[in-house]
Structures are given as structure tokens and as C-alpha cells.
Amino acid sequence: MSGAAPPVGEVCSRCGKALTGDDRVAAGDHVFCRSCYDTLRHEVHQAVEQMSSDVPYPMAALGAVLGGAAGAAIWWGFTVVTKISFGLIAVAIGYLVGHGAVRFAGGKRSRGLQILALIVAVASFVAATYLVNRTFFNRQFAEQTDAFRIGLVPQSFDLFVKVVSTGFGLMDWVFLAITAWQAWSIPKPIALPRLEPPAA
């Protein structure tokens, strides 16, 4: 109960003031007087709000794109070296995009950053899928002594769609969903619980 007497000699963890039964708020492993508790709570809320304000979106976009490019390169490179399309590696795209956006934004977090990271992650996943599938298509053309090759940049949009969609199955959707979830969750704004001091 808030009116119960505190332990003898108990003082506020911030200002050192001796606490009374009606002027004591417990927060985790510390206890505060009501004034200090209200001050600290206000400072924390202000700090969290500042994390979502004045977001440098151009820099965040650069970080997200670089992260997406790195993730795509890792997946594609693994495929080229091992000749195996291991889709689980693709989830690194979402992780790198999300952290790239947050890092280049100076640690900011916002709903706008979430949307940005999600779009870049999905686009990077699709581009990586194209590169991975293109590798297998071209390898098959070479084995069949066919001179045709799919370019690093697709010769047409229809060809791009065909290459990306070939063999795209249930697990690919699962990997895409994980990638999107990571990109969305990493820049998510911090949500503080609504903490109110106990009534006197």
C-alpha cells in the first residue's frame, strides 16, 4: 500500500531526500520521492519522443539501400560460390536494411523509418532473387551451349518477372515475410508503458 511506512532510513535514489509513506515511488530496484520520479519520467518520455523527431530520411534511405545491397550481395555471392540457393541467407537483408536505416539516421526510430525500411527490404529481396535465379539460368544456358545470357540488368520487364517468379514457392514467401518483419521491427519507435505513481 502506498501509505505504508517505508523502511527506516530509506532515501530517494536521486536527491537523497528521506522518504515518507506518501512520498515514495518504487521503480525497479530504486525508490524515488514523487518529485524526482515525475522529473525522471518526463525526461525519459522527452528522450523517447526526440528519437522519432527530425529524422534525416535521406541518410536513412542511404543506410537502408546499402544494407539491402550488402544483404543481396551476401546471398548472391553464396549462390555463386556454392552453386546452392540457400534462401535462409536472404533474411540477412531485412536485418541489414533495418539496422542500416537506424544507424544512418543517427539512432532515430519512427513509423516513417519502418515504412522506408520495409519498402527497401522487399525491393532488395526481389532484386536478390533475380540475381540468384539469373545465375542458375545462365549456368543452364552455358551447359546447353546456348549463347543467350540474362543480363545483370534484365533485357525487359517481362524477363525480370519470369526470372524472379521461377521456382518461387512457399518457403520463399516465408523468407520474404521474415525479411519484411525484421526490416519493420528494427526501426520501430520505443513504446514506454504508461507509468503512474501510486495514489497517495
Description:
- By secondary structure, the protein is mainly α.
- The protein has two domains: 1-51, Cysteine Rich Protein; 57-185, no CATH class.
- It has helices at residues 34-51, 57-82, 91-104, 111-143, 157-165, 170-185, and strands at 25-27, 30-32.
- Strands 1-2 form a two-stranded antiparallel ribbon.
- Strand 1 and strand 2 form a beta hairpin.
- The longest helix has 33 residues, at 111-143.
- The N and C termini lie close together (9 Å).
- The model has no long low-confidence stretch (mean pLDDT 82).
Highlighted features:
200 residues; mainly alpha; Cysteine Rich Protein; 6 helices; 3% strand
Share of helix, binned: 55-70%
How many domains make up the coordinates?
A: 2
What count of helical segments does DSSP give?
6
Give the CA-CA distance, first to last residue.
Answer: 9 Å
Question: How is the main sheet built?
Answer: 2 strands, antiparallel
Mean pLDDT: 82
- The radius of gyration is 26 Å
Element-level helix/strand string: EEHHHHHH
Strand order of the biggest β-sheet: 1-2
Low-confidence stretches: none
Overall 3D shape: elongated
Beta strands, count: 2
Strand coverage percent: under 5%
Which helices and strands occur, and which strands form pairs?
Elements: E1 25-27, E2 30-32, H1 34-51, H2 57-82, H3 91-104, H4 111-143, H5 157-165, H6 170-185
Antiparallel strand pairs: 1-2
Give a short synopsis of this structure:
With 200 residues, the protein is mainly alpha-helical. It contains six helices and two strands; from the N terminus they run ββαααααα.
